[in-house]
Amino acid sequence: MKLRHVIIYVYNSFNDPLFKGNLLLFLQHVGRQQPDLRLHLITYEQQDYALSEEQAAHVRADLATYNIEWHPLQWHSGSFKLLKKAYDLLVGLLLVLKLRIGVGARSISGLGTVAGSFAFMMAKLLGLRYYGYQYEPHSEFMLDCNVWPESSMAYRGLHYMERLSGMHADILSTGTVHMVRRMQEWGTSAKVYKLPSCVDETNIYFRPEGRARIRTQYNIPADKQVILYLGKFGGIYYDREIAVLFRVFQQRNPGLFFLIVSPDAPAHIAALMQAEGLPEASYTITRSPYEQVQDYISAADFGVVAVPSQPSQKFRSPIKVGEYLCCGLPYLVCAGVSEDDLVAEKYGVGIVVSGFTEAEATRVYPQVEALLNREKTQLRQQCREAGIAYRGLSQYLATADTIFAQL
């Protein structure tokens, strides 16, 4: 049997949920289904996601069962960011060259458009086929959310590379029908597939024992109605606006409790809540390893997605809504975010707002309250069915098989 060696280039740590709860699921599947495939996974390990030697050895052994060989590199941050990214790129290029010559790798795939741009350049330099996984316009996200000005080198460079790699890739997969249509309109030479961030529905589901554990841990009474925010603050997400939303909801219903699970600094989040006058007893701020996220979702009665309503956001494919739904949780989302707004209305499992403003929060709170007061068993089932149809891993495994068979 002739082996097909494919490089998977990820500018994230192995333990980063963006990789671990996303692309890794498809790699494990195709590694099982296509025995001639050998996947060479390159990651950049950050201190926030550091693994002990014992943990790393366990990861390596587990990946080997899926015919995946792991090549961890070190991620560099701090001062002289551009130089450090150039260094990371050079180290990655040398490793890819080694794999190209040593094992005869013939294809490379990049996760997202930052890693994807790096991988595309390597593909062109070394004569590899290029597959862009989760192709979406990250530069436009940063521009719309006022993180990067249009004149900045970061925006201009990434925007150029996104267009170039999108037009000249061999294969692209993207999370929404909106991006598929854009690439068709642009006339890309790539084969384009819809392959969103997916949830393994066999592992992500409502856990009554998880609900009880989290509520006990944070002293939340069993009958208390809990609103969950799971994610980051600021950047390409709302910041102060999340606290505004919570303050309006709390004013309408002082009995609500807000469970905030975020990798961001608790002091920053607490300052936002305090500035809006949220009573300290009405919220808690914590963080969670990816493996326990479903317990926090299970502990809640309603979820919030804090992606602003901007033109570029329809191209995003955040995994959060899939996780919420598969755990039986209805949600609130802004109009024009991924296909999350369409799914909310189609299946009756969410509420759509134009933005996180006081007026919008006041307008929709009666709808939020109606969902909070719904009979839980039926609502959870309704949400889970919608989640599996929308983001269930089983819905897209055949697409992944088709893509990797071509690499």
Summed up:
The protein is of the alpha/beta class and 407 residues long. The protein has 16 helices and 13 strands.
Q: Your description of this structure?
A:
This is Glycosyltransferase subfamily 4-like N-terminal domain-containing protein. The protein is of the alpha/beta class and 407 residues long. The chain has 16 helices and 13 strands. The strands form two sheets. It has a seven-stranded parallel beta sheet, with helices on both faces.
How are the strands of the largest sheet arranged? 3-2-1-4-5-6-7
Q: How much of the polypeptide forms β-strand, as a percent range?
A: 15-25%
Number of helical elements: 16
Largest sheet, strands/sense/barrel? 7 strands, parallel
* Poorly predicted tracts of residues: none
Radius of gyration of CA atoms, rounded to a whole number: 21 Å
Sum up the structure in keywords.
single chain; 407 residues; alpha/beta; seven-stranded parallel sheet; 47% helix; globular; Glycosyltransferase subfamily 4-like N-terminal domain-containing protein
